[in-house]
Amino acid sequence: MFEIYVIASLLLMVNILVGLARVLKGPTAADRMLAAEMFATSAVVILLLLATVSGEESLVDVALVFALLSAVTVVTFVSRFWIAGDSGKDRRAGGDS
Fold it and tell me: Topology versus the membrane, per the UniProt entry (predicted)?
């Protein structure tokens, strides 16, 4: 069972590396935000797997804090960048929003 957790953690780390390309490339702020959310979700799962393998219950608390920070980040992003009636075009790309 230990090997499955290690393999799952490694796959999640690869997932984070692939998502880094989306954060760096864009093309929109929403794409970057979704990739950052994927980082947070992957980090939470990795911490929970490590807590299961190592028996460290404090890692569960750290994972919960990451999950809460992730939710606050999304709410902040949406409240700052959401425009009612926006068609989803990127404002930097010269869209007529």
Answer: Multi-pass membrane protein
Among the listed residues 85, 81, 87, 86, the one whose alpha carbon sits nearest the alpha carbon of residue 32: 81
74 lies in which domain range? 2-82
* Whether residue 76 has pLDDT greater than 70: yes
| Residue 58 placed within a domain | yes
* pTM for this model (two decimals): 0.74
| Residue 45 predicted with pLDDT over 90 | yes
Least confident of 42-46, 51-55, 79-83: 79-83
Structural domain contains residue 88 = no
Assigned domain for 93 exists: no
In sequence order, the 6+-apart residues with CB closer than 8 A to the CB of 2 are 53
